[in-house]
Amino acid sequence: MTDTPAELKTLRDSIDNLDAALIHILAERFKCTQRVGELKARLQLPSSDPNREKLQIERLRALAQGAHLDPDFAEKFLAFVIKEVIRHHELAKAPN
Question: I need a surface site. Which of 17, 26, 47, 94 has the fewest CB within 10 A?
């Protein structure tokens, strides 16, 4: 087995730290969206808000472009997150 070059190890450590940060940020985001889902359920609002989603996609695509990240990737990522949020909102509406 060969030793991992120091530079490669440093880069991998950075990636691991960023992955951990992403998970924690997503967890915080889902805490907020869970509260939104509970509020929507209480107010009998629909789980999905297509106008809001459209604005969020446009905003995220612009942020991605400014950060030199593929806007299509950012949109796909957001679509995945939104789908999960809507699923949570549907669960919040379900009778216990």
Answer: 94
